[in-house]
Amino acid sequence: AREEEEEEEEVNQIADLLNILENISQINSQLQSREEEINILQKRIESEEGREEENKKELEEELESMIQLNSRLSHDIKKNDFSLSHMVKNYEGRRTFLRTIELDINRAESYGKKLQREFEREYETLETCNHILSASEEDQADLDETEEEEGIIKRQTDQINPSEDNGSLIEDTLKTDDQLS
Description:
The chain is mainly alpha-helical and 181 residues long. It has helices at 2-47, 53-160, 164-180. It is rod-shaped and about 160 Å long.
């Protein structure tokens, strides 16, 4: 969407530049036309020098208005040329700014992808560690269960088959009982 807006803005700027150029061209045509009229009037003045003073004043007034018009149109051309040069500079500045922004965006996207890959690696490492820990806990639980079962079996075996120590204790108890009787 942003690129479309920028393209539309760029198209609008180009259209504005074309309009200004057309205006300059029209003003130039008018200026040339006025210069030709001025030349014609100057020739008429020169050819009709002998005419009355009134006609001379009218021609001079007409010539003066043409000169003023010419001056004004020339001023407009300079003003439009100045505006056009500023528009071109602004256009180039915006294009440079746009390129800088695009470069920054590309860098940010690249950095984001790098961070995503690092995150995925860290996440995989964490999953592996959790798997190892859960396997270790299961093994420990199995080991504890096995040790508990072995302890129960040993106690049962000790009760069924008394050891030498337990046997001598029983014999001692029996001897003592025999001696008492």
